């Protein structure tokens, strides 16, 4: 059995020590991935993949016709990533991630993550104080999942409240009627000052 940990969004937060406990037990996984373009200041697309035993992956995906053979690969001087994927070539995505790491450094990246978590806490508090809304699931990072309370407004008014004249909208997620709204705080340039205007726009 192959156990894969898909930390596409939340994995980036684990650069901060206070979130690292979410990684407890990850050493038992066979592979781990995170999308640096989601919350790591890297442009689309960029995915980081770690594999405990690359040989299992290579055995299933490698292809070595004569015209692809070369001394560097066969002598293991290089890692030939064509054997880690279906396609034979790839864009040099690692370079932009390297620039992010070199430009920001660990301290600034942690500060970036923490600022978004604080924004989410602020927005979560605004939602929690209003009886017309309810938090659907506990917030762990910088995404707040909430919805218009069916008990407070009824389904008809709940659906009407989803349409705002400002043209702003939040993505839906399926939980149970009415649709759940997701408010992510993980892309620049939002600041803590954005939480209140957004909240007023959502006011049904």
Q: What do these coordinates show?
A:
This protein has 204 residues and is of the alpha+beta class. It has two domains: 4-97, 3-Layer(aba) Sandwich (Aspartate Aminotransferase, domain 2), CATH 3.40.640.10; 106-202, Aspartate Aminotransferase, domain 1. 35% of the residues lie in helices and 15% in strands. It contains six helices and seven strands; from the N terminus they run ββαβαααββαββα. It has helices at residues 36-39, 54-61, 71-74, 93-128, 150-161, 195-202; strands at residues 4-6, 31-35, 47-51, 133-135, 143-148, 171-173, 180-184.
Structural class: alpha+beta
Give start-end ranges of low-pLDDT stretches.
none
Biggest β-sheet strands, sense, barrel:
4 strands, antiparallel
Number of strands: 7
Backbone CA Rg: 22 Å
Strand arrangement, major sheet: 4-5-7-6
Write down the domain tally: 2
| Basic shape | elongated
**Helix percentage range:** 25-40%
- End-to-end gap: 49 Å
């Amino acid at each position: 059995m192959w156990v894969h940990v898909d930390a596409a969004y939340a994995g980036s937060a684990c650069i901060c020590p206070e979130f690292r406990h979410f990684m407890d037990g990850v050493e038992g996984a066979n592979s781990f991935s995170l999308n640096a373009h989601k919350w790591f200041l890297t442009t689309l697309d960029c995915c980081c993949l770690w594999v405990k035993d690359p040989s299992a992956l290579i055995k299933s995906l490698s292809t070595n016709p004569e015209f692809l053979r070369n001394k560097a690969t066969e002598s293991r001087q290089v890692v030939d990533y064509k054997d880690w994927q279906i396609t034979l070539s790839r864009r040099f995505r690692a370079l932009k991630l390297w620039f992010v790491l070199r430009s920001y450094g660990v301290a600034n990246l942690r500060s970036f993550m923490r600022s978004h978590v604080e924004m989410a806490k602020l927005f979560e508090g605004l939602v929690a104080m209003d009886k017309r809304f309810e938090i659907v699931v506990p917030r762990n990072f910088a995404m707040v999942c909430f919805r218009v309370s069916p008990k407070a407004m009824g389904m008809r008014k709940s659906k009407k409240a989803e349409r705002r004249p400002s043209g702003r909208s939040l993505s839906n997620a399926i939980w149970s009627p009415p649709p759940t709204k997701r408010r992510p705080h993980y892309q620049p340039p939002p600041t803590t000052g954005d939480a209140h205007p957004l909240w007023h726009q959502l006011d049904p």
